[in-house]
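hi! just following up on the protien thing from before. the input was this:
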Amino acid sequence: MKKLLLALGLLFGLGANASAQCIAVGGVNTVPQIGVSCASESNVPTYAATSIGLIPGAAATDIACISGSASRVVRVQYIRVAGTGTAITVPLLIKKNASVDTGGTLALTTAIPVPYAMDSTNPAATATTQAWTANPTITDSAPGIIDAAALFLAATTTSTAMPFVQFDYAERNYSQAPILRGIAQQVCVNLNGTSPTALLTVSFKWTEQQN
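and the predicted 3d structure came back as:
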């Protein structure tokens, strides 16, 4: 019995020490004890932008993009796409462009993805986000496809939950998020030339840090 109580005391003692080591982690100059893993709230400036009710154009290519910054490094944390339509499945490509799209018909009203700071004390976002209802011109002759999935668009008249696809780059070990350096680089959602009758929601979340 004494051995059991001693073991339990040691276990709780270690837990308490680990908890103590984790106090204030995430702030400046806080280094937890070696071997202790601490959950922390990121204080890297983080932003989000969402396009709601986006109607893609015919033979849709790039429908929404996030473009980089002249003064900060932009790391895309996730891209989420959802929608309703005519009960079909559409391809989703996540592409990285080395030069920005031009032209096309930009989305209006709620379909404009407007950057918003996750913390009101963050500086203003320097990355920009766009969405189109008619295809822009893709100026990069060989954009890289960095991710892909298929999205099922439930019929608008159904009462089922809106299906979605999320490309998550925040939960990662030993790998990089899609990184944008300079205003010429973009990460885009592309429908690979399909023509769905759909209302889409496209969300971006990203962080910004100084070069």
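The radius of gyration is 22 Å.
The chain has one helix and twelve strands.
cheers
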